Amino acid sequence: MNAVSFSLVLAGVLLNAAAQLFLKAGTNAVGHFEFHADNIVPVGLKLAFQPFIMGGMACYAVSLVLWIMALSRVPVSIAYPMLSIGYVINAFVAWQWFGEALAAQKLLGIGFIVVGVFLVARS
After folding, report:
1. Is 35 exposed, middle or buried (0-12, 13-18, 19+ CB in 10 A)?
2. Residues ≥6 apart with Cβ < 8 Å to 10
3. Model pTM score
4. What would the pLDDT profile of 89-117 be if each residue is shown by its tens digit?
5. What are the backbone angles phi and psi of residue 78, rounded to the nearest 5°?
6. How do residues 56-75 score in pLDDT, each as one tens digit?
7. Which residue range(s) make up the domain with 58?
8. What is the CB-side half-sphere exposure of residue 75 using CA atoms within 13 A?
9. Total domain count for the chain?
């Protein structure tokens, strides 16, 4: 994989991870909700105009364009496993920003993911 291809894959993965973090921050700001027939419009509007949710959707849109460009250059069997890097990033950022748990079992799983992505990238 050349530098341009790797950059496209990495940028797509990072934007996808950022999108997830923005969506989580947005749902934290909105709070717990459920959709019912009587509240679907107010809750939908609250979510649609929440700045973090809009940021997450923008990150998804840009990541989609970058991902399509990456897939035009890299075999999907190599590009797709790279998405796992997003999980690793999100686990650590969610631990820092949202106070989510990072137990030993989760860290071990993250280690396996990192080793797996490394092996796939080198193949």
Report:
1. exposed
2. 82, 85
3. 0.86
4. 999 999 999 999 999 999 999 999 999 88
5. -100, -40
6. 999 999 999 999 999 999 99
7. 3-122
8. 7
9. 1
